[in-house]
Design a protein that fits this description.
Two copies of one chain form a homodimer. With 353 residues, chain A is an alpha+beta fold. Chain A has helices at 14-30, 36-43, 49-61, 78-88, 96-106, 113-128, 181-195, 200-212, 220-232, 259-271, 273-282, 331-352; strands spanning 65-66, 75-76, 131-136, 144-153, 156-163, 167-174, 241-245, 289-292, 304-313, 316-326. Chain A has a five-stranded antiparallel beta sheet, sandwiched between helices. Chains A and B meet through β4, β5, β6 and α10 of A and β4, β5, β6 and α10 of B. Chain A binds a DNA duplex (30 and 30 nucleotides) through residues 33, 35-37, 47-51, 53-54, 56-57, 67-73.
Chain lengths: 353, 353
DNA sequence: CTTGGCACTCTGAGGCCGAGAGTGCCAACC
DNA sequence: GGTTGGCACTCTCGGCCTCAGAGTGCCAAG
């Protein structure tokens, strides 16, 4: 099992487990509390409702089920979902044709990783009819490919950085004195000649540590180089961020119909820090991970589940993707979709480099 | 008045207009249908409720008011809001201190126009507690500042374009044959030397029309230049787009509490084409424009109003910004905020160039 | 034209009732 | 001892009624 079992569950009767499984499946399908009569019919065990009732009462005592009120059926608790997912759920592999459809949509040519993230996020949300999320983390190793300096006005210079395979970043820096286009060009040429293909961490260290202290002895070119480099490589250039798509799907699922809950959830999407924290945790677990309700650590995720998977290229984790939806979601379908999408995205990134 | 009067309204009694004004103001404040007794108290005219009732009945006949049901008070119709905004509303200028606060938030240094759009959009939504929108349109005149080609793999080249003041664009193009870094560099140098500062339209025409037909006679460098340029300047590089912020505010206003309406609205934000169409219309009206409900041309905007203003630099319209909220919004506050924000954004862009 | 009076209408909250669904418990059964 | 049918009990939900409150429209008088 790719997701780690969290709760520790006392031994449950084979039959009891089966009944829990059927109940959860039924509830995920219908969204209605499941009564003993219904469960008796569905379970295929040839037991009377009365027997079922006894089992259900036990499951309620153990915290796997609860009833909304006396005379409704039962509904799984978070603990119930947990056991279901850890031990009872069987996840069918995705149909070949479906994999193909996913592959085709991911393999379309894109301009940059942000656009790819958006595409994949759209895809996840479209296929699952939930909210899709793709995170692009801060990479540990960022390779400098090319740098360019353009004078904007008196003391402002536009820096264009090409990183990794094809990531383009630009920023504006303030300089201590005006630089001519020629000076800037020479500085860029020097940096490109010297450091293209090197890790940006390494560039920073080599350049700044070695040269800064001897600044006064440097010729004019190298002084330019140092001043530019100081600001260019100052902060880690690839920020950690994510892309959400299909939030509106969440407005359609009956479970989250409470407007206020929904608003808080949407605000969390914009706020980002909570979710980034969650995804950071997933970065180094391999395979699909599932968080049920407040297991995710944030109270705004009440009633929601998060299904995530990291994607890796050459063993290095590049990011996490996943979906957010109501806890009552079709895990048997969502899990393989998330899993396969992560693999396909990894493959696409691999080809691209 | 900056917004254009749309409906043509028959002569209304001075007193009748005053009563409509007070009613709309009251309704905007409370959100409750206004009855004759309330209006009589609020209007300050020393009239009895019975008289007010007669006037209200007239206004209803003329289509300015309606009652939700027999024994509720009256509510303005779209037509009523229209008249209110066109002729009755007085818009107080924004407080100096408030303008200063806005200015300070807009004048913060930013990296590129997309980031600025986001900042301003956030600002609009924060100040008005509605959804803020900033559109960056396709500019008519796009100036090439700098171009750079980097070989990625066999037949793929990364193009980095610096446009206008500081806009950086990048795209990947497929080439017919592999090019070396040196070749690409020469081609870029040629283009920069020849065309930096020129309009991109002009570059395209000059280069492609004049040279393409004589391709066979060109030297190797110029052949490279032509192939690169063909794809680099093929499509209009600055896409029309907008940024929405603070959508969640719309979930809090009682008027739009219908989940389904809200969902459709949010989907419209993602879909973009409807709203882009609307904003295109605003591009060349000067000053604040207001669309009430379906005046905006899209049925998803039922119950919503849109307040927009274009922002210009040196007489050239650069884009449109505005807010979307329930029709029952505090126009006397929203209008000056939108107006001032547009001016401040224009000023900020002007300084930046 | 304005006003007070008055009958009328409609909503919304609260209370009541009955149907339906499901439970818990118990005694009987295998 | 696990399983079962029976049965009383509880709770929700929709329909129905009622009543107070708010606001209207109309009319006749000022």
């Amino acid at each position: 099992m790719p997701w780690e079992p969290v709760g520790n569950h006392p031994n449950l009767n084979e039959r009891t487990q089966h009944l829990l499984k059927v109940l959860v499946e039924r509830y995920i399908r219908d969204g209605q509390p499941v009564g003993s009569r219904t469960l008796a019919r569905d379970a295929g065990l040839d037991l009377s409702p009365a027997t079922i009732r006894n089992v259900m009462a036990d499951l309620e005592d153990l915290g796997y089920l609860q009833s909304p009120h006396t005379s409704a059926g039962r509904v799984p608790t978070a603990r119930g979902y947990r056991l279901f997912i850890d031990a009872l759920l069987n996840v069918p592999p995705l149909d070949h044709r479906e994999v193909e459809i996913l592959r085709r949509r991911i393999d379309q040519p894109v301009q940059n990783s942000a656009e790819l993230a958006r595409t994949v996020s759209d895809l996840l949300s479209g296929v699952t009819r939930l909210a899709g999320i793709v995170m692009v983390p801060r990479r540990n190793v960022v390779t400098l490919r090319h740098v360019e300096f353009l004078p904007l006005s008196e003391n402002r210079v536009l820096v264009v950085l090409v990183l990794n395979a094809q990531e383009v970043q630009n920023r504006i820096i303030q300089t201590r004195r005006p630089y001519s286009a020629v000076e800037l060009n020479q500085a860029a040429q020097y940096l490109n000649g010297q450091f293209a293909g090197k890790g940006i961490q390494q560039v920073r260290e080599t350049l700044l540590r070695d040269l800064r202290e001897t600044r006064d002895n440097l010729d004019r070119l190298m002084q330019t180089v140092v001043e530019m480099a100081e600001q260019t490589f100052e902060i880690d250039p690839v920020g950690e961020d994510y892309v959400v798509a299909g939030q509106t799907h969440l407005m359609q699922c009956a479970d989250l119909s409470d407007l206020d809950t929904l608003r808080q959830l949407f605000e969390a999407f914009n706020h980002k820090s909570d979710l980034l924290h969650l995804f950071d945790q997933c970065l180094h677990a391999d395979g699909v991970q599932i968080f049920i309700g407040e297991e995710a650590g944030s109270s705004v995720l009440q009633g929601c589940s998060v299904v995530t998977a990291p994607y890796t290229v050459e063993g290095q984790v590049l990011g996490v993707l996943g979906v957010i939806g109501p806890t009552r979601m079709a895990y048997d379908r969502v899990i393989p979709v998330v899993e396969v999408t992560a693999r396909l995205l990894a493959a696409a990134l691999n080809d691209q480099d």
